[in-house]
Amino acid sequence: MDHFTYKNGELYAEDLPVATIAKEVGTPCYIYSTATLERHYKVFSGAFDGSNALVCFAVKANSNLAVLKTLANLGAGADVVSGGELQRALAAGIPASKIVFSGVGKRPWEMETALKAGIHQFNVESEPEIRVLSEVASRLGMEAPVAFRVNPDVDAKTHAKISTGKAENKFGVPWQDVSRIYREAAALPGIKIQGVDVHIGSQLTDLDPFNNAFKRVRELVEDLRREGHDITQVDLGGGLGIPYDGTIPPSPASYGAVAIEAMGNMGVQLIFEPGRLIVGNAGILVSEVIYVKQGAERKFIILDAAMNDLIRPAMYDGYHHIDTILEPSSESIRELADVVGPVCETGDTFARGRELPPVEAGDLVAFRSAGAYGAVMASTYNTRPLVPEVLVNKDQFEVIRKRPSLDEMLELDTIPTWLDNGK
Ligand code: LLP
Hints:
Layout: E1 4-7, E2 10-13, E3 16-17, H1 18-25, E4 29-33, H2 34-46, E5 53-58, H3 65-73, E6 77-80, H4 83-91, E7 99-101, H5 108-117, E8 121-124, H6 127-140, E9 144-151, E10 173-174, H7 178-186, E11 191-197, H8 207-226, E12 233-235, H9 252-263, E13 269-272, H10 276-279, E14 283-294, E15 299-303, H11 312-316, E16 322-324, E17 335-340, E18 349-356, E19 364-367, E20 389-393, E21 396-401, H12 406-411, H13 417-420
Parallel strand pairs: 4-20, 5-6, 5-13, 6-7, 7-8, 8-9, 9-10, 9-11, 11-12, 12-13, 15-17
Antiparallel strand pairs: 1-2, 2-3, 4-14, 14-15, 14-19, 16-19, 17-18, 20-21
Helix pairs in contact: 5-6, 8-9
Bound molecules: ligand LLP.
Residues 58, 60-61, 79, 102, 162, 199, 202-203, 237-239, 273-277, 312, 316, 372-373 line the site of ligand LLP.
């Protein structure tokens, strides 16, 4: 459930007409709803009430400070994958003790910053990484709390580009090496082994892969304990899907039940890293129709948003529902059109053959479910400014990241002296 609904014949974000915000901020722009963020966080964390779980929001899904602060106020932790995300999480007021650091390529300065901040856990993904972490921690006279991310060789049955739990993927330590790697790591200076971590992929709409992975992790924890490791933390990652196209994924409650059934009586703290589920449906991308063009074979609706603003359709064939801002009447005819952006490549297509009510230049449309992996993946391709973000709270809204001016963008480039000639 979200708080983007039609009222008085037009789309609202909570208590505000989307058109009012778009007029003031300009298009394209992302709009997030506080009430939806809060609801999703509470529904997810509610699935683990009374079971000593730490919910670490996956910052990669949406790293805006205002979004993070909203979640921090509800008690959320953070899953970060870079020094930059760590800095954002801390700046938003998420306590270091609730931050886990994931990712296959952590650099020494990022490890050092995280150690000094006092994070909850490093999710380590390889032998070279644990050796570097050991060196950094020893040099600082500190001890790094560590879980290894294990690769359970489970098929997440999601898009290939966002599957992470198969043996062929770059993530985690190979299942057959886990026992040796834990033994060797436990002997390294500056390393405190405390947990096991798994994340098998994103936008999962079936509980079976989770169930399989979690059961394998349970057996692993039992084995590791038998081998003398004090496993107190089990991080089960993120990945629960959201309804983009009408397919209804399992509820957080049933996902929670699977996790608790697998791990509940192990005497561990469970950690979860949901991203999309918390922010996905809490955001829309609003765009204006620039032209409606009749091609030789197809009709094109050309928007002022493009693949650089929302790359999911181009990159993962992602489906985003498109609403007109004016509520279509139930009798209004639907027309088939390709919805595209102005970027100069055919990949800049949001939807092919989409059924939409008739639109014309100047009309506004909204891409739904754009709060996760939307603004964070935006670029300035075609020298298009980074798309701004707005947060709504009941009848108030504020710009939480402004649109850079073209001058600000150009200022980042410099002409080398040999080209400048002082002219
Ligand atoms: N934990 C780890 C270690 C991850 O790699 C990810 C996502 C998450 C948690 C959060 O997963 P979520 O709950 O959001 O599914 N850009 C792609 C998704 C990439 C996901 C990367 N990792 C997309 O737009 O579909």
